[in-house]
Amino acid sequence: MFVVSCLTSCCASCACGACMSAASAISRRSARLAYCGLFALSLILSWILREVAAPLLEKIPWINTFAHTPSKEWFQTNAVLRVSLGNFLFFATFAAMMIGVKDQNDKRDAWHHGGWVLKVVVWAVLIALMFFLPNIVITIYETLSKFGSGFFLLVQVVILLDFLTSWNDSWVEKDEQKWYIALLVVSVVCYLATFAFSGVLFVWFNPSGHDCGLNIFFIVMTLILAFAFAIIALHPQVNGSLMPASVISIYCAYLCYSGLSSEPTDYECNGLHRHSKQVSTGTLVLGMLTTVLSVVYSAVRAGSSTAFLSPPSSPKAGATSPLLEGDTEAGKSSKDAEPKPVSYSYTFFHLIFALASMYSAMLLTGWTSSTSDSSELIDVGWTTVWVRICTEWATAALYIWTLVAPLIFPDREF
Predict the structure, then answer these.
(1) Chain-centre distance for alpha carbon 378
(2) What percent of the chain has pLDDT over 70?
(3) What is d(CA 323, CA 360) in angstroms, rounded to the nearest whole number?
(4) DSSP codes joined into one string, 128-150
(5) What's the pTM?
């Protein structure tokens, strides 16, 4: 246990040192990116321990409690889940602490933006303590992580829709022909890429001589959804645009590919089985990159969106009153100054990071399918396939809902 504690402490202390050296320079605005940096460090630590901690965990009596030592994959999964649990508890605790923060006079506002030296120390200690917990706690967290990851995937879709809406609106508001042409070009390119990529999927995952009806169904459904997006978005009664529909189409095609490429290597319809190691690693890297981009975008967007992550009391949530000026008139006491509301929900902000911690653990462990024949093949198995495919369908459902909801509920604002 001493060796594992040293290894974990070493990795965590390196992260602490890097964060502490810059802690004094962190401002209110850059605090959001500092949380992103802490989350990124947890991913790096998880990846390192997944590769090197398995032999060390075998020697810990309260972890290796089995009569027969389990496989290396089990210890790899266990190490990743313990780091993920520590990271989850850190952000979940902050999410709970920030419930009800409405203005910057609340002392918890300072907790959210400051105290970075203490935060990094607490984060490192939490991760180290996770290696002293019994296996039953990790097993429970593993089960909860599957549900939490599903919620994060839905949040990821909402983030994508928010980004596409902002992108489309920013170009339309310029009201210049070149920007309308740019929107058309992006739409055409994305749709052509969607159809071309779907054709490639037919070749890769429908090899001749095999009955691959399930794969064909997944691919055909992706094409049907792409057409449906365009038809609904261009309907006269729908206030939609072709550009978001085209980007969502290619994203759905990517999700379909990631699901099909996660099929077991011995499945006859998986045409990439000869390159399973490269495909598994590539899918993992893309998944981790998407996760990091989602949390970074949510952090940056939180301070500028008119609705995204914004609490009802925030001016950015649609309040008509302008932001209060930072300087108060001379002679007025601080009690007479009206408190300045926060610009986004701190609770939801930390909740995104907590759910992302769960999701990243599932990515690194292949949704804890440690029965794989090879530890090199992560993120592979039927569980992963259905998670990705269901995420594609949920993405389609949410996007279609954003288009038709104003027609169904005309009295509500969307």
Answers:
(1) 18
(2) 75
(3) 37
(4) HHGGGS-HHHHHHHHHHHHHHHH
(5) 0.73
